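Predict structure. Chain length: 622.
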Amino acid sequence: MSTYQEVYAQWQSDPEGFWMNAAKAIDWDKTPSKALFDLGNNLYEWFSDGMVNTCYNAVDRHVEAGKGDQVAIIYDSPITGAKDKITFAELQDKVARLAGGLAAKGVTKGDRVIIYMPMVPEAIVAMLATVRIGAVHSVVFGGFASNELATRINDAQPKAIIAGSCGLEPNRTVPYKPLLDGAIELSTHKPDFTVILQRDALAAEMKDGYDFDWNDICAADPVDCVPVEGNHPAYVLYTSGTTGQPKGVIRHTGGHLVALNWTMKNVYNVDPGDVFWAASDVGWVVGHSYICYAPLIHGNTTIVFEGKPVGTPDPGTFWRVISEHKVRSFFTAPTAFRAIKREDPKGEYKKKYDLSCLRALYLAGERGDPDTINWAKDLLGIPVIDHWWQTELGYPAVANPVGIELLETKLGSPAVPMPGYDIHVLHDDGNRCEAGEEGAICIRLPLPPGTLPTLWNAEARYEASYLSEHPGYYLTGDGGRYDEDGYLFVMGRIDDVINVAGHRMSTGAIEEVLATPPAVAECAVIGVPDEIKGQAPRGLVVVKSGASTDGLAEELVRLVRDEIGAVAAFRLVDVVPALPKTRSGKILRKTLRGIAAGRDEPVPSTIEDPGVLDTLAPILRS
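Prediction complete.
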């Protein structure tokens, strides 16, 4: 058995050979001649001249290998009580027919398809059907507000949109179709048609000749997989940018297949046939990588769960799913465990279920706080693995490689860099930090296969956002430090993107909404510590002289919910007399964040009026 150090050293000494060897686990229509393609100007691609299809590797090849009767997807919805199991053979038929229906309506290789779906198996079918014909999907979190969806429609310019009629929350039904109709009305680009999955809970009103029923589209003849180039986009996934304009992260097909397949055994320690569960949503990168693609590519059974860690119906729902479906490795966000711990601090519900099948718990999406990790470890008696990555990277960059070797765990650290990632902590001047010194977490180029090669229609923005700060490095936007053993400790964002329950959100986008009422003169939004969600957005609003503040806070909360969506979890807003600024007019958000977090923040030398901080400190700490 190899050790982590041996495997990492293999990659370091021969990255080309390492990734070409990993690529042998993928079925190529045409084997790539090499792994890395250097395009110059700090732009790189992987396996570009290979020909391959994602859907074939996730579905068809398992059927052809005689595994058609193995369950591919387990659907479990405690909200509706529905459960279903779909084998690889059944999945192949469903995907090929939807792909045939899309192709019959003119969707071809390179066309974009937006997917706006709840957590149902059809969301996975839609993703696989899109890549089956070489189209490019862009999944938008179901229930996102119309204007957020419209910005993505305008940027991706989809030929079609596939949507559910509604999403289901524990106590309410969220109609998707009015949000979709509103988005298409707002957008300058108009898709050719939509495909609507009608759910029993709420049927959508259909526009004849424009909105097509899912079942009618799926009545088409099945079509085969279309081989695409290794550097052909499989998808575009939008993530929050500091400007409020979302960034379209591109995922190239070849590197995506190779990297995700590699992680399933080496990081998550599952073998083909094992049940793997990532409790997330298809609208986020975890849902793309570890509900849909990685488990199916590797030949695992994946779980599509439509529920919450608490309230559907109780804090034992995760334990029931793990026990009932024999989950081997489980991945969720620390937020979920904080919610369970709050409702069931002694873990009484866990005692009702046999969890002997579960070998490890993986946490990511936000910083894993020691209290939650210790609680989970004591409750479950198995390794609790914190690991770190981002939407842009697509899979773990820093982890404990359990399938290679279970390393010592250190509270507060996601452990060590994975092969492909040469991670340095840098000072502002670009020099490397010593062990124990905090700085910016940066990855030396080239990034490994499966990470973003650039941004959709925004190469200049890619370079400005990620490559310009430290030449030769990718800037992650997180700060941290190494310890003397080479363990990385991630301390949090160094920009103005906040992390709410594992979902990245631009404070700038929320500020744009807060600034809309006539009474508001200026505003700032910061991320503040939240016991359950890790971070929550907090708004500080200055009103115009003489303006009434009656009902303003409630109006602002409602506006953010309408414009951004409930996912923002925006509830904290204060009307304040002034905001702290530099003499050049820049709001001192970092200082505000520090005060809200309870730190003794030094007063910046550039501040215009230090007295403003004295006024705000008791408000921020309340």
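Summary: The chain has a mean pLDDT of 93.
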